[in-house]
């Protein structure tokens, strides 16, 4: 390599992460990190969890108010009509190896939905498109979940709500109330969360004038990243490794002595307890068998105490991942379906943000700082 | 609807578009808008176009310097090994209706590539992954292009370069130099362009720790948006409507009198002639039949003169779309394949930005301004 200038061609470029830079104005939801408060369309999450159905919350986020009975009936009817998958989506899922990560299957399934229903998702996203897309998220995941076990997908039922239907399509039987109700509360709690990285991705794509499927496909890809979607299955791995209540202290102490990070504690925005964690604790108690809940509870208590001793002032609290893992495991999901199930809920928020972005759109196109060279002269290949 | 507060639930939220906000530092490329200059890794685009092959430019963007002959031979060998599609990708493309927009087919094909090759694209994107992904863009599009005509896809050939191979896989015969060389220059010119909306999308997704396929799938979705990927096929529509050199003045005058926007002029960043347009003019002359080039040239000249008369001081110049359309039409592509062919080129830039983002990563997560309500109380549905 005779071109001496190549030696300096690799500065280490960085990004500032846009922390604190306002990239969008929203009326949909907001995270009050210092107070540990989450608001959807004017309602504190405590006003909705356990009271409003997931369908009511989807309506609230998409339309702007809680539905009347008549509005909800019409809305549920439309959701019920949008639960089946086009054959092409099943064909694509069937063509995937069983070891494909479910987030990859979901990303492709969502994109394929757009490719097999041309005309449904056009350049002007609206409520009907949001319904057509979000209502099919559980069906895509359930179909892949069954196909990778060598089983056939099951058609959705219009008489079941979203949480019931998801469990029905996954496992092939009507779920117990003890399972679907905690799952429904989980879906309510995760539906939106301000301008996180996947929601921002959806808004950037939507800002180009692209369609809803393109926007939400991008968001699924962003949620796959562990710095955003987290690693909720690792909470389950940790609880399984600990195994019994008697082993909690020894296990946690050894992990902290090794310098390991404990899974399920701390959050970039919340500097108080995540309000979702508090509600999910109750749901985990309801859905889990008593021994597993006792293990979860003891692990949480001791982890918080040990973290407070070893990292005083860091304000580490239980985050949404900790009891999400307990709830999702209790309803029968394996760890690699946890983040995809998060996406089932968040598909509502993503779609709502796309509709909001387009209601008053401007292309999101930030600037970059150029730190590269200039003025190099082309050298023919035989002289390099 | 007895809930009176719903009447005020719809403010019109907006986005500021992040204009002028630095969201990333890059050494890859930069657009000097005032001067009409584009630089890749230290080289002005004029130093590369018509001199460096598309493969050399891909190597330059990904690795940081122009390859030696030995490096290029190894690189071309790897590209040749990565031109065939997994069966699952063909299966998914085959399952799409013929009227599916090619950008939707590409988005799903790219995502499916990740879903059918688990293990190839992991959490740590590198040069081999960039090759494995970008080398297959032309094959995905060519396969869909043939399938929608009822023809079978054609396997790529390791002895052809990217431009030759794309045309070969589209049309089933070895292309003329008069066609593949202008196409190759087009691919060189469009490979990167600073932090545009699709590139930013790829970097946001990559910043979560997600994989290369997720990042680039999101970017394809963003390029689909007309505010970013534009509407290059409309340039062709305009030229076809004008039809003959004699009709240029009358057609343009009538269009401007009606207040129509002329396609192919003006750019958000360039306030001088886009350097790519200048080079593509020469390529269009080479690839087009003489009558069509004469029509394009006359249309450009008269449009610039009329725009200058009617909108003095607006500094409207020919943009990259104008002669891109002429080049791509000349090599035999229909208008709906123009933006997807842009993506064939830009897949190199997207991958380079993902690698650069991850070399020194920080989660990109801006803030939002909350303009919604607070303190609303849940009202049971029968009281709404």
What does this structure look like?
The first copy, chain A, is mostly helical. Chain A folds into two domains: 36-223 and 347-359, Citrate Synthase, domain 1 (Orthogonal Bundle); 232-330, Cytochrome P450-Terp, domain 2 (Cytochrome p450-Terp, domain 2, Orthogonal Bundle). Helices cover 53% and strands 5% of the residues of chain A. Chain A is built from 17 helices and five strands. Chain A has helices at 45-48, 54-63, 69-81, 87-94, 102-116, 127-134, 137-147, 162-171, 177-189, 197-207, 212-223, 232-242, 248-257, 275-287, 290-310, 320-330, 338-359, and strands spanning 22-26, 29-32, 37-40, 43-44, 367-370. In chain A, strands 2-3-4 form a three-stranded antiparallel sheet. Strand 5 of chain A pairs parallel with strand 1 (22-26) of chain B.
Distinctive features:
2 domains; homodimer; three-stranded antiparallel sheet; Citrate Synthase, domain 1; Cytochrome p450-Terp, domain 2; 384 residues
Secondary structure elements and pairings:
Two copies of one chain form a homodimer.
Chain A: E1 22-26, E2 29-32, E3 37-40, E4 43-44, H1 45-48, H2 54-63, H3 69-81, H4 87-94, H5 102-116, H6 127-134, H7 137-147, H8 162-171, H9 177-189, H10 197-207, H11 212-223, H12 232-242, H13 248-257, H14 275-287, H15 290-310, H16 320-330, H17 338-359, E5 367-370
Antiparallel strand pairs in A: 2-3, 3-4
Helix pairs in contact in A: 4-5, 4-7, 5-7, 5-11, 6-17, 7-8, 8-9, 9-14, 9-16, 9-17, 10-11, 10-17, 11-17, 12-16, 13-15, 14-16
